[in-house]
Amino acid sequence: MRALISFMLCLIFTLPARAEVNEIRIAQQTSIAFLQFNVMKHQGLIEKHAAALGIPGLKVSFATFNGPDAMNDALLSGAVDIVSGGPPGLLVVWAKTRGSAQEVRGVAALSQLPFLLNTRNPNVYHIRDFTDSDRIAMPAVKVAAQSVLLQMAAAKEWGDAHYDKLDPLTIAMSPADATAGLLSGGGNFNAAFTIPPFQEMQLRDPAVHTVLNSRDLLGPSTSSYAWTSKRFHDDNPKVYLALVNALKEASAFIIANNKETVGYYLEDTRAKVDGDQILRIISDPSNTYSVTPLASARWADFMVRVGRSKAVATSWKDLFWPEIHDLPGS
Hints:
Blueprint: H1 2-14, E1 23-28, H2 35-43, H3 45-52, E2 59-64, H4 68-77, E3 82-85, H5 87-97, E4 104-112, E5 116-119, E6 136-138, H6 145-158, E7 170-172, H7 175-184, E8 191-193, H8 198-202, E9 209-213, H9 214-218, E10 224-229, H10 230-235, H11 237-256, H12 258-269, H13 275-283, E11 288-289, H14 296-305
Parallel strand pairs: 1-2, 6-7, 6-8
Antiparallel strand pairs: 3-10, 4-10, 4-11, 5-8, 5-9
Helix pairs in contact: 2-11, 2-12, 3-11, 12-13
């Protein structure tokens, strides 16, 4: 019996470790909130860091999605490995999967960009000025970061019991279409809560002004994250670390090389936007690209407080995998 046990132990310790994946599949959105992905793609940063960790020849593929719901479904089904989006997208799937075999947590923060609620209604300068005749276009109702920010503002103005007071005024529309409609004045809405650089494009029209800036609610706050499943995190420690290292390098590159970064973005998206406008946005030192999460716990606390989530985060670290726990997050 002892000989059999010794043989089995030798077999276990001499078996090769299970191989990590040879491809990492990343889902992204076409927004300047996710510029790290554009930089990593053009410079092969994940491949470089994977090779340095002993995994040469790693394949990296990118797929474009329009919103967090579809990306989270793809992540949970195993169709993609890494997804990205705003705070609610991460918080919803984290709360849904917490403690399960499919648990999802954040990989890192990506950007700190403000969201602006703009309007062409000359009578609206505060959210309390909106009436039943106003309509606010945003990327998605209920689930988009802009929707939750509007609820935060409503809760601050009228109390938590009325956090959804302005929800009936919201309609779903892409940032590009919302911008075109707001500038033309011919749509069935007169306000837009979108994303950079579209919100800045709207403000070129002197008839358009800002009603709400997300920084007035939260101060410095992460506007986009990357996240992944426990399965991918645990099964691929070297590939995962290569991803984190690549995100850190890409973040530093964006800050030091604004023009080249804009070029990558325009080439990848072929977006019909003003490159000079994007350059001005990312050159603004208050608009930061960093892997350190900021104000993530405040988003989580709000969603629990108003009943949109039952999963309580005792710390921002509950929301993220341990590889970034040494950062000064919040």
